[in-house]
Specification:
Blueprint: H1 5-20, E1 29-32, H2 33-40, H3 53-66, E2 70-72, E3 86-89, H4 120-134, E4 142-143, H5 144-155, H6 167-170, H7 180-187, E5 189-190, E6 218-222, H8 225-232, E7 241-246, H9 252-255, E8 267-271, H10 276-292, E9 297-299, H11 301-310, E10 314-315, H12 318-321, H13 325-332, H14 337-348, E11 351-352, H15 360-365
Parallel strand pairs: 4-5, 6-7, 6-8, 8-9
Antiparallel strand pairs: 1-3, 2-3, 10-11
Helix pairs in contact: 1-2, 1-3, 4-5, 11-14, 13-14
């Protein structure tokens, strides 16, 4: 809590006096009343209204006591305006110790000048990126969220980076993270645009990269925008998809109602995060599809198998971590048969797999998943 001007000036003066007289800032320091008066009389704006100075000082000491920065001792002067014979200056919060600096990868040596002034979050991220660079990573350029998951999901702790794929969504300050161009170049990453949000399935050529990808009868739905982009940009030439849609998380449960007979969809396939909400979304969307006479929502088998092979489980968020064995079994039954048991155990363990583990690099360099779009 910020103190008013006069109180701030008085406490600053008391701390200066304590430091000048050998009192340590992180321990209690007793200051006699004559020293308090000495400091008070140096406060520039101590008594602008010309009031009785002992009353002004008593008021300021009471305010500082209430703010928890000093304590007035019980013994007081016998004067008309009674003052404590001394005050106890309470210790200031000790700043967290700066951890040892890494021996930087050559691309990060310039961060040595920033280490001492960086925030705890920035230091943790710098150190993780340093470990990733030293690991000799594959520098095939991939979307930023996929790279963030690879870096912070592999080399960072779950305590520091609970949802590693989103780390760089929020980390925007500091000389590295505030410079998008510099960061993207260092991480060999790029930022694909999210797909166009539309309630229709556009047929015009200029809208092709957003929804319509062919003349087939399969609608392929992807939960997250980054993986949507990676799938669209990696489709084989002989796919049978008509459309690839961005599920926009739980929005797919409602947006499935936008499918009409004229779209001639005979199959709906889905790929999303492997966690509680990531499985509830297609299950509930499939219930809605049944009500509308649409095809059921089916899992993209090869992509889920790739996700379980490539992904590193991380703790689920608090709202998703607690789940009964019955519910875990019901959700996991929607998965392809080879993925059900490990999926059920993942949910019971309170963990998750973000779909961004299946990267643009994997989609471009492997053909196994092509059966999901044929």
């Amino acid at each position: 809590m910020a103190l008013p001007r006069r109180e701030s000036e008085l406490i600053a003066g008391l701390r200066e006096w304590a430091a000048a007289h050998g009192r340590r800032p992180y321990k209690d320091a007793f200051i006699p009343l004559d020293a308090v008066w000495e400091v008070f009389r140096r406060v520039p704006h101590r008594n602008v209204a010309g009031a009785f100075e002992p009353a002004v000082l008593a008021s300021l000491l009471h305010a500082l006591d209430s703010a928890g920065v000093i304590r007035q001792v019980q013994r007081r002067t016998p004067d008309k305006v009674s003052l404590p014979v001394k005050v106890r200056l309470l210790p200031q919060a000790q700043p967290p110790a700066v951890p040892p600096m890494p021996r930087w990868h050559p691309a990060l040596t310039w961060l040595a000048e920033e280490w001492a002034t960086a925030t705890v979050k920035q230091r943790a991220a710098y150190a993780v990126i340093d470990r990733w660079l030293k690991s000799g990573p594959d520098l095939f350029r991939i979307p930023l969220r996929e790279r963030a998951l690879e870096i912070f999901g592999t080399f960072g702790s779950a305590e520091d980076f609970l949802m590693p794929e989103k780390t760089l969504d929020d980390l925007k300050s500091g000389p590295l993270f505030s410079d998008q161009g510099r960061l993207d170049q260092l991480l060999h990453a790029f930022r694909p645009p999210p797909p166009l949000i539309t309630e229709t399935f556009p047929l015009e050529d200029e809208d092709g990269r957003y929804c319509r990808v062919g003349t087939g009868d399969v609608l392929f739905v992807v939960e997250n925008a980054t993986t949507w982009w990676s799938v669209v940009e990696s489709l084989p030439g002989d796919h049978r998809l008509g459309y690839v849609a961005w599920g926009l998380g739980g929005t797919f449960r409602a947006s499935i109602r936008a499918i009409k007979a004229k779209h001639r969809i005979t199959q709906i396939r889905y790929f999303g995060d492997l966690d509680t909400s990531g499985l509830r979304i297609p299950l509930r969307a499939s219930d809605t599809a049944a009500e509308l006479g649409l095809p059921p929502v089916q899992p993209a088998e090869h992509l889920y198998r790739a996700l379980q092979l490539l992904g590193r489980p991380r703790p689920a968020t608090a709202k998703e971590a607690s789940i009964s064995a019955t519910t875990a079994g019901e959700l996991a039954q929607w998965l392809p048969a080879p993925c059900q048991e490990s999926g059920r155990q993942l949910l019971l363990d309170g963990q998750r797999l973000a779909q961004e583990w299946v990267t643009y690099r994997y989609l471009r360099q492997n053909c196994d998943w092509h059966d999901d779009v044929r």
